[in-house]
Write a structure and sequence with these properties.
The structure holds two protein chains of two kinds. Chain A is built from nine helices and 14 strands. Chain A is of the alpha/beta class. The chains are: A alpha/beta, B mainly alpha.
């Protein structure tokens, strides 16, 4: 059984609001997260769902009203933070420092004395060796994200928290960051990252948690969450005049005597295939279309949009 | 090492700020301008230069202590660079202490620079280095420490504008607290007298840190007075620093 690195149990958080700050606005209404060793866990949710607040509580920037956070089975404390790396949303760094100075400063905050070689190695890993002596205020968004990743692993952490690491990046920047994150996983680190870009989560995540309005709605691997459900089936065939009349199809197209059709489920697909073969036709391909993460996400969001 | 790292970073940020540069340039300019003022006044030119020089350095100390402290601390929260520090295994108390030490270093270095500038200028104008002002500069440093502590306390719980106003208010009130006590103590009795005494002892007494008016004549500060004032000031500053750590401990950082 895989070791659980992080377990969050019914985390709740509210902030004072209203006139004279007498009211309280609930932002987390019950967050439950389980992250296992060596995996990439994506925490997905709409803007304002509570992803950043959850990370701020894990890293100690904020305090929860109630709920538990367990790190390797024990309540998370100040000392455990030496094993955790964190990249905040929208890199918040000291602009007047160079990349190298920033990494040295970050190492000192962990009481670590990193040699020049170690700092150079980190800068090479994130492809910023040439910009090491340039002030952070001159860095592009992508460069800031990369120096942020370097800073989040300066203490050689077992567990890394990345808050929206891919947002605001162009496709090349996103690919570089995704490759970096996969590289960190290959080194045996556990990563939790938040995003509202679902395609990135589909590409690299082992497990996913979906939160809506401060509550965990669903959690599991991509296979558990979406792959079981076949939404529709694409079937391509030739050698017959057309689609049989009693087959319920969604769409059909003909190109150079080959038919491309989409039917609503596997039963209709089986019915269509049987009829094509009976009529002397040939099947070119059958492709079940599974529900995407995006479709699942919208379904969950719509179901919960009426809930407070 | 963590606290030293925060202190070093705070110092670096402070001395690179435009506010620091402006304050330093204007202070040096006014010190150099004191010669012109001394020509307009019917009094010993040397006395005016020393008086004015000390007054300018004191104003610089107050402004630097309050404005830089408030500005830097607020910037950390506003730009969220504080997230990089608090997400590390560093307590909020260590963060405040690091900030305090960094600001103290900034203040100390600034006072040394201004003191040297003043002495060299005085040497060219009066033929004297007037080194007797340096103990007063140290007391200005202690005064600044108290104001830095108050600025950190107020910025932990309030907005930058209010923090600056409150800190400046503390300085003003602290300079008049002994006069306040002298005036009211004889006129009131019972509970009111007790309250007057409480207010006097709770508020900082900046007048015991200030010998600039008599310095021109006495050309020095008695060692016992200097030590008493320093110990009082440092103790007071540390007490307020502890209060600011307590205030910041549970402060929500949005």
């Amino acid at each position: 059984m895989k070791e659980k690195i992080l377990e969050i149990i019914n985390l709740k958080k509210s902030y004072p609001s209203g006139t004279l700050l007498l009211k309280r606005t609930e932002v987390l209404k019950g967050i439950n997260i389980n992250v296992y060793k060596g995996e990439i866990y994506s925490l997905l949710g709409h803007n304002g769902a509570g992803k950043t607040t959850t990370f701020k509580i894990i890293t100690g920037i904020s305090k929860q009203d109630s709920g538990e956070i367990l790190f390797k089975g024990k309540t998370l404390n100040l000392k455990d933070k030496s094993k955790i790396g964190f990249l905040p949303e929208r890199p918040y760094f000291y602009e007047y420092l160079t990349g190298r100075e920033f990494l040295e400063f970050s190492a000192n905050l962990f009481n670590l004395k990193k040699s020049k070689v170690q700092i150079e190695a980190l800068l090479s890993l994130v492809d910023l060796k040439d910009a090491a002596d340039v002030q952070l205020k001159k860095y592009s968004k992508g460069m800031l994200q990369r120096i942020g990743i370097a800073h989040s692993i300066i203490n050689d952490p077992e567990f890394i928290i990345l808050d929206e690491p891919l947002s605001g990046l162009d496709p090349i920047g996103r690919k570089k960051l995704r490759d970096l994150i996969l590289g960190l996983k290959e080194e045996g680190r556990t990563i939790i990252y938040s995003s509202h870009i679902l395609q990135d989560a589909e590409m690299i995540s082992d497990r996913i948690g979906i939160i809506v309005k401060g509550k965990t709605i669903m959690e599991g691997s991509l296979e558990e969450l979406v792959s079981g459900e076949i939404k529709e089936v694409d079937v391509s065939f030739y050698g017959v005049d057309g689609i049989p009349k009693d087959v319920d199809y969604i769409k059909v197209e003909k190109k150079s005597n080959v038919f491309y059709t989409t039917v609503k489920d596997t039963d209709e697909a089986n019915k269509l295939i049987a009829k094509i073969i009976k009529d002397g036709g040939y099947i070119k391909f059958v492709n079940p279309v599974r529900k995407t993460l995006e479709e699942l996400f919208w379904e969950i969001k719509d179901e919960n949009s009426g809930n407070s | 090492m963590k606290i030293v790292a925060i202190a070093k970073n705070t110092y670096r940020e402070a001395v690179r700020s435009k506010l620091f540069l402006l304050l330093t340039i204007f202070s040096i300019a006014f010190i150099l301008f004191s010669k012109v003022v001394s020509l307009l006044v019917i009094s010993s030119g040397e006395k005016i230069i020393v008086d004015l020089g000390l007054a300018i350095i004191e104003i610089f100390t107050i402004l630097l202590s309050i404005l830089i402290s408030v500005n830097l601390f607020y910037k950390e929260r506003d730009k969220r660079t504080i997230f990089n520090i608090l997400s590390k295994p560093i307590s909020r108390e260590q963060f405040i202490l690091g900030k305090f030490l960094g600001l103290s270093l900034t203040l100390f270095v600034s006072l040394v620079i201004l003191g040297v500038v003043f002495s060299l200028y005085a040497l060219t104008v009066t033929g004297n280095l007037h080194l007797y002002i340096f103990p007063q500069l140290l007391l200005f440093f202690v005064e600044g420490e108290i104001l830095v502590s108050f600025s950190l306390l107020f910025t932990s719980v309030s907005t930058p504008i209010l923090s600056s106003i409150f800190s400046l208010g503390i300085f003003v009130v602290g300079n008049f607290s002994s006069n306040f006590l002298l005036y009211y103590e004889a006129k009131v009795k019972g509970v009111v007298k007790l309250l007057v005494n409480i207010v006097y002892y709770v508020l900082p007494n900046f007048s015991i840190l200030n010998y600039k008016n008599q310095l021109v004549y006495t050309k020095g500060i008695a060692l016992s007075n200097f030590l008493n004032a320093t110990v009082y000031g440092i103790d007071y500053a540390l007490l307020i620093l502890v209060l600011s750590m307590i205030a910041f401990r549970n402060r929500e950082i949005l």
